[in-house]
Amino acid sequence: MSTLLRVEHLTTAIGARGPEILSAVDLSLQSGEVLGVVGESGSGKSMLALSIMGLLPHPIQVRGGRILLGDHDLLALRAPQMRALRGKDIAMIFQEPMTSLNPVMRVGQQIGEVLRWHLGMRGDAARAEGIALLRRAEMPDPQRQIDAYPHELSGGMRQRVMVAMALAGRPRLLVADEPTTALDVTIQAQILDLVRKLQHENGMSVLLITHDLGVIAEMCDRVAVMYAGRVVESGSVLDIFDRPSHPYTRGLLASRPKISAGAQWLSTIEGSVPAVGQLPQGCSFAPRCRLAHAACNVVPPLRPLGDAHQVACVFPFEPVVAQAVV
Length: 326
Ligand SMILES: Nc1ncnc2c1ncn2[C@@H]1O[C@H](COP(=O)(O)OP(=O)(O)O)[C@@H](O)[C@H]1O
Ligand code: SF4
Ligand SMILES: [Mg+2]
What we know:
The structure is a single chain. The chain has 326 residues and is an alpha/beta fold. It has two domains: 33-54 and 79-89 and 175-325, Rossmann fold (3-Layer(aba) Sandwich), CATH 3.40.50; 98-170, no CATH class. It is built from twelve helices and 14 strands. The protein has helices spanning 45-53, 79-85, 97-100, 107-119, 123-136, 142-145, 155-168, 185-202, 213-219, 237-242, 247-254, 319-325, and strands at 3-14, 20-30, 34-38, 60-69, 72-73, 90-93, 173-177, 205-210, 222-227, 230-236, 257-258, 264-265, 303-304, 310-311. Helix 4 (107-119) packs parallel to helix 7 and helix 5 (123-136) packs across helix 7 (155-168). The two termini are 33 Å apart. Iron/sulfur cluster (SF4) binds next to loops. Magnesium ion binds next to helix 1.
């Protein structure tokens, strides 16, 4: 497998001198792989996605690091080059499709725009391709729904339109930011199945952002755990679920409802993610960490723990100890 996306020391901040939102984020995604990015709300997941897409809202900007997609250095591209790449090589689906669909344009026109822009397709050919894409996105009755306006569709159907639009340019990378959070559980499962199926069929790579560890377990090959704008642990799904090492990852796992416990929340991590610009000195997790110690007064770098397992903690649980404790 070759590396498709490499994010190196990415730092994203508010303006030229304001506080950092992402600090020295490192991650990589192989061709055909699904990488999950998980963390509580406010940990910087969406800002990571928008940094990769080149869609950061003003005045947020990338301050340092590199984002490489295959041979392209995305941060070195000019705006027109980035626009040509977006939707073609990289596509994105969001939590709330209504915010990215144009409410006054029919579904077919919106898909048609992507097809015209990236593939030069128009007229009957674009309409036929639009219907075919909706069918691949498992939209019921695509011949009719292609003429619908977004408000005439359910949330699940709107997300299928987004998936169809994302596939239109035949991207190598799909960035999905909480794509099912706004949907009810049954529809959520259908959309996730669809993404997985299309990923297999197209050999696409997927960066799947979620706060839901259940979604990670279902969908992903590897996982990056984010906290306060940093990756604090990364590894295979097995590393993260069976050998979690960072106290934050262990806290997230312990907070999952367990069916055997009657769907009770076993424990939660006290406190919340610090606001941007208000990070404590040293390890950002220290105020919430039961293991915090004077030695945690430095920002711990990500360091290898196993083959592809990395953790950023001064006192990580070593895998053998973790197995005994979990
Ligand atoms: N437009 C903005 N201006 C300033 N800060 C922002 C803006 N958008 C998000 N943030 C802050 O950036 C941090 C990361 O946000 P975000 O990436 O949306 O988190 P997540 O997607 O993990 O919930 C949060 O602390 C959030 O308050
Ligand atoms: S570095 Fe210290 S405070 Fe931070 S997570 Fe590890 S043990 Fe806890
Ligand atoms: Mg978000």
